[in-house]
Amino acid sequence: GDSFMIAFENVYDAVCCGLDMQEYLVEADWPKLLTDMEKFAWKEPGPWCGLRIRIGIHSGPVTVQLNTLTNRYDYFGTTVNKAARLEGACIPGCLAVSPEAYQGIGTFKE
Q1: Is residue 61 within 8 Å of residue 105, measured between CB atoms?
Q2: How far apart are CA 57 and CA 102, in angstroms?
């Protein structure tokens, strides 16, 4: 499958965004054509019907490089690799947060 990465200034914003995305997908009014596709949806009605994504969140240093072909930034390093492994290990519809990222969440207050 495909995946994408979003970089944030802090862990709190990353977790809030991830939770917002999951909530939006759960509450979306999915067309029957999609919910009937076994590969993409559960057969039982309820909160897990429709498209579900996996989100891995890790915090740490990264190497940033401008891609001159796309004029976008590419991110490299063990932080990116760990976030990708967390995403791959979690179940669809959930967030997997590393211990390092979890510790960073507590440094922010609403």
Answers
A1: no
A2: 9
Cβ–Cβ under 8 Å, residues 79 and 5: no
Compute φ and ψ for 85, nearest 5 degrees.
-65, -40
From first to last of the 110 residues of the chain, give the pLDDT tens digit: 577 888 999 999 999 999 999 989 888 887 877 777 776 655 555 556 677 889 999 999 999 999 999 999 999 999 999 999 999 999 888 899 999 999 988 766 55
What number of other Cβ atoms are within 10 A of residue 72's Cβ?
Answer: 8
Work out whether strand 63-67 and strand 72-76 pair parallel, antiparallel, or are unpaired: antiparallel
